[in-house]
């Protein structure tokens, strides 16, 4: 077995297609779109304006048996002043020896860049699918959430990696109305002059910039956070425009000044599982057909400016989200991900009826 860097387009193809071998026959795996993965791994995403990625393949003879990416995020280093590098896109067909070889290659690359610890999996940052699934293998992942076999946990821990932080996913049967306590908070927020409006897709770039500013303010104290850049926000606007439902993308305002946001997306994994990683003419027709049958959503982001917390803004956002979900015929929602020690958000999610059902883990190892 040897671990070698990805240097050719053929290597990249092998890197991209390895999951199809690993998850063959797994009823819960959802293939990601190959074109989007290729764009991400070849540095076309604006994340790589301040980041560097090195891809590695593990081979046994002429067979590829594993893959990993080593990620140097200079934006993270500038914000946190903490010499931590990352690994992601980890997949392994074999045993601990293959895993150890892959992780050693990523560690060597990051050690050569002056990093003192390695953390992951992140694909390629905390703004993207991140964490290793360690609980909740009995159902598919929702849109933009990761998935992996149960054995990966033992492989990483045998290599010396230890828990840095857990991320939780909650599932809720969408209520017809808010629970009484949340409803009182929501009513109180409206009495204070707080209003909620849907995102305007006709001026999406402006709306996404509002979201970016709110997100960077609301999330700045969260573990692992790195500010979203203007370029990343523009990329998000371009790629999410066909996927957004205006009534599920909400902005809270006081006298037209944005103070909070909530974004739900339909669970497009219920569509992607039928596309086998490709979105050609036939795939587009499948997308349009299966999109109409989605009945689950994912609450992907929620944030409130610090000075407006405790004033019922989040409850009011939940009120409008609940109404919109019911009007569009959604049945279930996943709230993900939530830091395991973010008690304010965890209590809010539980008041809405959320029950924890999946756990994802970020691992870390000193170099």
Largest sheet: 13 strands, mixed
CATH superfamily of the largest domain: Gcn5-related N-acetyltransferase (GNAT)
Alpha carbon gyration radius: 21 Å
Distance between the termini: 23 Å
**Strand content range:** 25-35%
Q: Give average pLDDT, whole number.
A: 96
> Which H/E pattern describes the elements?
EHHEEHEHEEHEHEHHEEHHEHEHE
Kindly describe this structure.
The chain has 367 residues and is α+β, with helices and mostly antiparallel strands. The protein folds into two domains: 2-168, 3-Layer(aba) Sandwich (Aminopeptidase); 175-330, Gcn5-related N-acetyltransferase (GNAT) (Aminopeptidase, 3-Layer(aba) Sandwich). Helices cover 36% and strands 28% of the residues. It is built from twelve helices and 13 strands. The protein has helices at 9-22, 34-41, 74-80, 96-112, 151-158, 180-191, 204-218, 230-240, 269-272, 281-291, 313-327, 343-351, and strands spanning 2-5, 51-60, 63-73, 84-92, 117-120, 132-135, 162-173, 194-198, 249-254, 257-266, 296-304, 332-339, 355-366. Strands 1, 2, 3, 4, 5, 6, 7, 8, 9, 10, 11, 12 and 13 form a 13-stranded mixed sheet that branches. Helix 4 links the parallel strand 4 (84-92) and strand 5. Helix 6 (180-191) packs across helix 11 (313-327) and helix 7 packs across helix 8. The model has no long low-confidence stretch (mean pLDDT 96).
Q: How are the SSEs ordered, and which strands pair?
A:
Elements (H helix, E strand, L loop, with lengths): L1 E4 L3 H14 L11 H8 L9 E10 L2 E11 H7 L3 E9 L3 H17 L4 E4 L11 E4 L15 H8 L3 E12 L6 H12 L2 E5 L5 H15 L11 H11 L8 E6 L2 E10 L2 H4 L8 H11 L4 E9 L8 H15 L4 E8 L3 H9 L3 E12 L1
Parallel strand pairs: 4-5, 11-12
Antiparallel strand pairs: 1-2, 2-3, 3-4, 5-13, 6-13, 7-12, 7-13, 8-9, 9-10, 10-11
